[in-house]
Amino acid sequence: MLRDFEYSFDGFIFDCDGTLAESMQMHFRAWKAALALQNATFDFTWELFRSMAGMGLEHTVDLVNKRFNQTLEAKPLLKAQEEFSEEHIYEMRPNYEILDFATWVAKEGYARSVASGGNRHVVHKTLKIIGADHLFPVVVTQDDVTHGKPDPEIFLLAAEKMGIAPEKCLVLEDSMLGIKAAEAAGMGAMLVRFD
Predict the structure, then answer these.
(1) Are strands 111-115 and 11-14 parallel, antiparallel or unpaired?
(2) Domain 24-90 has CATH 1.10.150
(3) What is the pLDDT of residues 77-126, one digit of tens each?
(4) Hey, where are the domains in the chain?
């Protein structure tokens, strides 16, 4: 099914968490643990977490503070979230259908990249754990951009680094914010859901 797109696009941009990697449950638990350490007074539900997927960590803290009238401190919260993720990172598994497609895309010589709202260190480690680090010559993370998804900046940067016009790129994403960002960039978008 995925290979039907090969004739329309010259470049493929893959999200990492929830798309290439089955990691969303682990990241949800990391947020819950970090929020508990700061005595957050709102219910951080799976639905809320999914609605902010791909936004970027600092943007997520800003949104939560505004939406729930919180005074969460971004740096310690993000440090706790990252420490939990580091401790549990080896629980992650690849999404085999997407990884198989990425492997095929690489074998066929298409331009390809990862564009993730995660931080650079964790994204690179995740790609290594799931056996995908060798597939992507371009990896763009929240550390490379000013605005998180749904802003198109991260996808436009990935396309630029691949040397492919935005309209010739297909984005594979598991979040609606990512789909909106891809559409805003003038790219094709495919929503994938696993967890």
Answers:
(1) parallel
(2) yes
(3) 989 988 998 899 888 999 999 999 999 999 999 999 999 988 898 899 99
(4) 2-22+93-191, 24-90
